[in-house]
Amino acid sequence: MTLITDLTSNSSRNADTDAPLITPLVERWSPRAYDPTAEVAPTVIRTILEAARWAPSANNVQPWRFIVARRGTAAFATVHDAMAGFNQAWADSAALLIVNVAETVDVEGKARPWARYDLGQAVAHLTVQAQHEGLHTHQMGGFDAAKIHAAFHLAPSLEVVSITAIGVLGDPDTLPAPLREREVAPRLRKPLAELVLAGE
């Protein structure tokens, strides 16, 4: 078993950027091959959640909530069981599964229209901090949200939006062939000219 507190990221997958970016953004990518023996130190888990806590939000309502499930726990098994099969095929090796939850309604029953956007910002902060700590993340949308909602007895005002797998890079050869091919495929992004709709 490997206890992870800090690692140097795999530089072979670094982004080929058109402008200089901070190192965690250059090194960030979304692997599926994780080291099934690696664990994340509690202090590091707290650090990446602290990064999420300091994300911006509309009116500072901070509508993000998280379910943190470490590999080997009942919570991890519950989250893993709610995943689609194509995610179950690899996510069991991740050290952590974090369920990202948005509080979409306030205590007075009023809708919070920006809750999902704000949660996304918090998860982005968490992702960059995790990369800085030598970890990798993979965001997932293939899961049964209702199953997770019921299993963790979440309030009706809470919406399960996504799951983040977090861990240490593993051996791509352990993946099924189709996933292995995606793991080593070139990283591509649309040019900025296609993304900026107006302005310079």
Describe this protein with a few key phrases:
200 residues; alpha+beta; NADH Oxidase; four-stranded antiparallel β-sheet; two-stranded parallel sheet; 8 helices; 6 strands; 18% strand; globular; disordered N terminus
In spatial order, strands of the major sheet run 3-4-6-5
Largest sheet: 4 strands, antiparallel
Following the backbone from N to C, one meets helices and strands in this order, namely EHEHEHHEHEHEHH
Give the helix proportion (percent range).
25-40%
Distance between the termini: 51 Å
Characterization of the model:
Belongs to the nitroreductase family. InterPro entries: Nitroreductase (IPR029479), Nitroreductase-like (IPR000415). Residues 26-72, 83-167 form the Nitroreductase domain. By secondary structure, the chain is α+β, with helices and mostly antiparallel strands. The protein has one domain (31-171): NADH Oxidase (3-Layer(aba) Sandwich), CATH 3.40.109.10. Helices cover 34% and strands 18% of the residues. It has eight helices and six strands, in the order βαβαβααβαβαβαα. The protein has helices spanning 23-27, 42-53, 74-81, 85-91, 115-132, 145-151, 177-184, 192-195, and strands spanning 2-4, 38-40, 64-70, 96-103, 136-140, 158-167. The strands form two sheets. It has a four-stranded antiparallel beta sheet, sandwiched between helices. Helix 2 runs antiparallel to helix 5 (115-132).
